[in-house]
Design a protein that fits this description.
Blueprint (H helix, E strand, L loop, with lengths): L1 H7 L39 H7 L12
Length: 66
């Protein structure tokens, strides 16, 4: 718990990685609308496994099936 307290109090630097394949995360940016120099955003293509987990691979988007 002392390590968590150090992180919470800003006594130890750390990196928090939010891997959000669905793009649903929200991180408050006190510098908005400018970018926050402490936040690094990396966009990437979802893997086939992530698409399966999210149900995207099984979606029927063919209009003729409606």
């Amino acid at each position: 718990m002392s390590r968590v307290k150090e992180l919470k109090d800003g006594d130890k630097p750390f990196t928090l990685v939010l891997d959000d394949a669905a793009g649903n995360c929200f991180v408050y940016n006190p510098h908005a609308p400018e970018s926050d120099p402490k936040i690094k955003i990396e966009e990437y293509e979802r893997t086939a496994e992530q698409n399966d987990d999210l149900g995207i691979s099984f979606m029927d988007t063919d209009e003729s099936s409606y």
